[in-house]
TrEMBL record:
Belongs to the CDP-alcohol phosphatidyltransferase class-I family. It is found in: Membrane. GO terms for molecular function: CDP-diacylglycerol-glycerol-3-phosphate 3-phosphatidyltransferase activity. This is CDP-diacylglycerol--glycerol-3-phosphate 3-phosphatidyltransferase. The lineage of its organism: Bacteria, Pseudomonadati, Pseudomonadota, Alphaproteobacteria, Acetobacterales. Keywords: Lipid biosynthesis, Lipid metabolism, Membrane, Phospholipid biosynthesis, Phospholipid metabolism, Transferase, Transmembrane, Transmembrane helix. The chain crosses the membrane at residues 15-48, 92-113, 134-152, 158-180. Pathway: Lipid metabolism; Phospholipid metabolism; phosphatidylglycerol biosynthesis; phosphatidylglycerol from CDP-diacylglycerol: step 1/2. Its EC number is 2.7.8.5. Its main location: membrane. It comes from Acetobacter farinalis.
């Protein structure tokens, strides 16, 4: 049911996307900090919606479908916003491209495999990848201006975000390869 708390949390993640994008587009340290905080809240809902759905026995087709979509929309919109605003420091456009390509690849494979009654379960390493990725995007949204805003001008927030995004990209390549080899086992290549 759409009004079950896990589904409400998933929907709230989708609703947060344009707000995060608008806050980031303002380009001031305060708005960047607010974009980061809202992004963090949206990311936290990803953890709780699944946990609550399982504990309350409120698993639904809507939740199974839109949880993954909400995550990909949030990540994709934020990475594209940062790129469009020229806020991808330290060559982080490359890991962003890797992350987006892997998301499209895995989504396509899951759709294909669903028709074959096969699945690609989420691995523990993929969960780590998501953690690094979400943390990195939060730091990149915050930007160095947030460090100044907090009275810590020495804190290179964007550099931290860049390092974390590169780590996420490495994990993305590893998990993407794992998913690809697993998915190809279910494909008739002849």
């Amino acid at each position: 049911m759409l009004t079950d708390l896990p589904n409400v949390l998933t929907i709230s993640r989708i609703v947060a996307i344009p707000i995060v994008v608008l806050l980031a587009a303002c380009g001031t340290p305060l708005m960047d900090a607010m974009a980061c905080l809202l992004f963090i809240l949206a990311g936290v809902t990803d953890y709780f919606d699944g946990k609550l759905a399982r504990s309350r026995h409120q698993l639904s087709d809507f939740g199974r479908m839109f949880d993954s979509i909400a995550d990909k929309l949030l990540v994709g919109a934020c990475l594209m916003t940062l790129a469009g605003l020229g806020r991808m420091p330290y060559f982080t456009l490359w890991p962003a491209i890797i992350i987006l390509c892997r998301e499209i690849l895995v989504s396509g494979m899951r759709e294909y495999l669903a028709e074959r009654r096969a699945s690609l379960p989420v691995t523990r390493l993929a969960k780590w990848k998501t953690g690094f990725q979400m943390t990195a995007i939060g730091f990149l949204l915050a930007g160095d201006g947030t460090g100044v805003l907090l009275g810590m001008p020495w804190l290179h927030v964007a550099l931290i975000g860049a390092v974390l995004l590169w780590i996420a990209a490495v994990l993305t390549l590893i998990t993407g390869w794992d998913y690809l080899t697993t998915g190809l086992r279910h494909v008739n290549l002849s």
